[in-house]
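Q: Hi! First time doing this. I have a protein sequence and I read that you can turn it into a structure. Is that right? Here it is:
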Amino acid sequence: MINKLFRKKSVDQIIQDAHQGSGLAKVLGVRDLVSLGIAAIVGAGIFSTIGLASYEGGPAISLLFIFTAFACVFTALAYAQFASTVPVSGSAYTYAYVAFGELFAWIIGWALVLEYAVSNTVVAISWSQYFVSMLEGFGIHLPKWLCMAPGYAIDAHDKFLKEGVAALNVADKVGLEAYTTAPRIADIPIIFDFPAGLVTVLVTWLVYIGIKESQRASNIMVMIKIGIIVLVVLGGIFFIKPENWTPFAPNGLQGVMGSVAAVFFAFIGFDSISTTAEECKNPQRDLPRAMILCLIICTVLYVAITLVLTGMVNYTELNVKDPLAFVFKYVGFDRMAGIVSVTSVIAITSALLVYQLAQPRIWMTMSRDGLLSKKFARVHPKYKTPSYATIVTGIVVAIPSLFFKMDFFVDLTSVGTFFAFILVCAGVLYMDYAGLSARSKFRVPYINGKYLIGIGFIAAWVLILRYGQHILAEWQLLSIVDIAEHKSLVLVFWLVWAALAVMGFKYNFSLLPVIGILVNLYLMSELGASNWIIFIAWLFIGLVIYFGYGYRHSKLNVKANEHA
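A: Yes, that's right. Below is the predicted 3D structure, encoded as structure tokens:
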């Protein structure tokens, strides 16, 4: 049974299965892929979570964007090598099937379901906030109970009962209004985010009717998006007050790293490009180029926008859901705030579009391998899109976006993404070891890590022992229970680094994928324990489905039984 769980698919076999069962239209070029990548990356991150990150870490968040992009570069290189070797839809799921076998492939595919579904829920909720703000700019006021998650209203009502109206901020007062004015059934207030659910349905319909239509819409929206960001940067420069950048890191390194989830969420979209491999004209050439280009472009945009926002307004004022519009309202430039609100609605829609494109294609690939019902592999005869999987994706995203709070989802998204990124980087090491890299049209630049990985491990500990006395003192105060709850991933990080140093010496590992593994694992260790509990529960549900259906219906298992 162990052998069956880790059975692998060869590259030739995966490509052959894709050609036999696809039927998708090959219409995307490198420009379209870059556009889709920018659409996914420059989405809710820059229009929403960047405000929360700046509030927690101050202007120094701009450095965290650079550090996170640095982490993503190594992962992007690994993705690019896999994409040039296995030009098939499925993203990290397909790559794991080649490198680690079926069980790991299922785990990654299941984690990607969480990543894309949760990401799109965040994007839909963020879109709703900007849409409501835009309508108010035109004098149209939706009932408050019709445009927010019930959790916000309930929290505001509880705060009002405990602390009184004087303790409520602007957002709390809106939530309290929703609670008190909402219609009731059996004295239970009916509160939901109708715009978030509506936009999800409309975007799902667009994705359903064709990749070409989706690509055209994405290209137009990306042009508008880039235009508004450039406009915000150029317009905001004149309102910058350098004193707002002091202190640069008001909450220290802890405050900066505490925003890892919010910042990393901004970058996860680049892997969605790889899910369109079967719709690319030349995937082995264009996918690697597109991944690297969109990552560079988006990093520059993020750093510029962060410096402008924290320069215009003190970081303590940025804990809002629509920071780009807010800063111009704050400085009295209401007309610009209105323009930002209108164009932000269009810009965030493009991110929603790309995520809704990516999820069905992963399900389609898993279904072709027999791990999910055959319905998920169904391609519409007219529109040439995975029709059933697209509809299910719309339902899975629309329902949570109606009822859940956005901040619940941000950290949860990052857990699954880090997990997938680490396995993709590790997969490149396996490709080198198994000789598969010789087939890659794009390869991660090889730097022999035989000695460098171990030297880096020793150097890191020397620096900690010499300059990290406060870190060691903090550990001495922790009980075993505290370490297990809050620091277990830090221990895993050091153990993995030590293991990679030994294996790197033995097998001459390439240095860049190893750096990708370690940086992603370190960022993982900064996430809260509650997110890990939810993620582990999600994986448990996935394993139940796999052993209940996927293991028995797997095409590799069926073929093996027929052969026997």
